[in-house]
Design goal:
Layout (H helix, E strand, L loop, with lengths): L15 H13 L17 H10 L6 H35 L4 H8 L10 H16 L8 H27 L1 H17 L11 H11 L4 H25 L7 H14 L9
Helix pairs in contact: 1-2, 1-3, 2-3, 3-5, 4-5, 5-6, 6-9, 7-8, 7-9, 7-10, 8-9, 9-10
Length: 268
């Protein structure tokens, strides 16, 4: 199996604080000469716990010794993962401070066969860290994946820009429909699920009253679509009309159209 096709290595299942607590319990359960536990660093100091547990590893015997070794191994993995964002930021700051890749390689100990710094290794480290910090769970720590992540980010930005542009173009119409829907909601002309807490209607009301910029204005259509889908879903499930009058039903249809909610279900 090639490296690209192997399963991506996942972090330990238990969080680090749980691992630290289990280490402590193993030492408590040892049952003899526990005075050293008075110097236990506490679960918040994970590096201190790891150093302490390693120092006193010999206090445990048999299965406890083995279990503690596994816990230390897993805790060390968590600490390594936790350090990744800091090393990435430090490398990027060093580059911002005009340190060359050769100088960074020298500081990190990346020395080639010619006894000279290997800038490519330093750059690859940075790219692997970038993947670890900014990538998706299935991404491997390979330098070439960093370019894929950049493309993902760029595409998300382009999609957001298109979303905002479309929202700005139709904002006046969406705002008018949103206000009309809220009016119908307040006067009881919209079919409501008695078990619903009104979350999406409250979100819509907040979105109408509090729009800080183009992105907020564009997302107004999202909340319009949410209340429309909720209304039609309940109407179809209970075989009822979604609204009490032809005018209000027409408004729901218009809201569905401009919010991109798709075909509006009707009562059977």
């Amino acid at each position: 199996m090639t490296r690209d096709k192997r399963p991506v290595r996942k972090p330990p299942q238990d969080p680090p604080q749980v691992l630290a607590a289990e280490l402590y319990e193993l030492h408590v359960a040892a049952g003899k000469d526990q005075e050293y536990l008075e110097r236990w660093p506490g679960d918040a100091d994970l590096l201190g716990v790891l150093q302490f547990a390693q120092k006193y590893a010999g206090a445990l015997k048999g299965d406890s010794f083995q279990k503690a070794a596994v816990l230390r191994m897993q805790l060390a993995e968590w600490l390594r993962l936790a350090a990744d964002p800091f090393q990435l930021a430090a490398i990027d700051d060093a580059r911002t401070g005009h340190l060359t890749w050769e100088e960074i390689a020298l500081k990190l100990g990346y020395i080639g066969r010619s006894e000279k710094p290997n800038p490519g290794s330093a750059k690859n480290l940075r790219d692997r860290l970038y993947v670890a910090v900014n990538g998706e769970p299935g991404d491997r720590r390979q330098p070439q994946v960093a370019h894929l992540i950049d493309r993902r980010v760029a595409e998300r930005r382009r999609a957001e820009a298109r979303f905002i542009e479309a929202g700005e173009a139709r904002y006046a119409e969406v705002d008018a429909v949103a206000r009309a829907l809220l009016n119908l909601y307040e006067t009881g002309e919209i079919l409501l699920d008695p078990n619903d807490d009104g979350y999406w209607w409250e979100e819509l009301a907040d979105a109408v009253d509090d729009r800080q910029g183009p992105a907020d204005r564009a997302r107004l259509a999202v909340y319009v679509g949410a209340v429309v889908r909720q209304t039609y879903t309940y109407a179809k499930r209970t075989n009822q009309e979604p609204a009490g009058t032809n005018t209000s039903r027409s408004l729901l249809e218009k809201a569905a159209a401009i919010s991109g909610s798709g075909p509006t279900p009707t009562a059977d």
